[in-house]
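*** Residues and shapes ***
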Amino acid sequence: MTTKARPITPPPVRAEQRVRGLLVINPYSSGMTSRREVSIVSALRERMDLEVRRTERPGHAPRIVEEFRSPDDIDVIIACGGDGTANEVLNGMSLANGTAQERPAFAIIPAGGTNVLARSVGMRNHPVRAIEQLADAIVERRATSINLGTVDERIFMFSAGVGLDAEVVKRMSQRRTGRRPSDLSHLVSILGLYASQRFALGDVMTIDVDGDEEEFRAAMLLVGNTTPWTYVGRIPMHFTPDCTLQDGLDFIAPAHANAAYAMRNAAQAMGVGRRTRMLVDDERARLHHDVDHFTVTCDEPLAVQADGEYLGDRTHIEFGLLRDTVRFVY
């Protein structure tokens, strides 16, 4: 007598084995709609246990995240919004050197106007289309420890600046009445500011790099933690092409800068001349690579920005690097 084999039922997955996620949504991001929010939350809840919190105003995300700093409480914190939302989430995670294993992992759903960090690691530039890729990575616990930059008390993901670039961010933020202006309008504003300075910028700050024997003067400062820093439409801008999230900071600090320099540097960042003759050599650009710490002293208060957010006018600014500070899921 033979018996029919019964199908084997896999053991049930215990609740504690499911990934526990916190989703921080900025409903005012340029790429967010109520329909997309429903799709995102539904897709993630199919794969993990999910807490959902919505930001109500700028600066709200860090307060939300403060409740979930320990990996005993949550496995991954997901920022759903633009680069500003992601920056605020990271600044709420109380990160420090070597804390990657002591904090929840970090992930991004790109729902802003530019989404620099998400696009720089190859994510789809659409919040719903990015979900499948991201959900798989979260459930499979695929994460890479990364370094982050600091400018005084603020953490930044991809770029910061003092002087010209930050002054443009300042002026655009003062005129801003709705969603974030495009990067093309940002570049137009830079050229307009050059014009207001008669297309020439002289040295206005002193930079002191740890380990270097001499200080040097500069007209402006652009700092990168990865590449690209921004996009013009679909075109990435690689001002520091050798910079990665696993290395130190790179920065550009020319002693003098005019409109011709700005246009050549921008063209080179888009790839012109990279394979043949460099349009702006490293010596002229004062390009520094893989730096952990440096200070900037300005002749008078100058604008400072981090990840496209204006931080105020300051005369003394300290830049640093947090190594192995968070596990980035993508």
The radius of gyration is 22 Å.
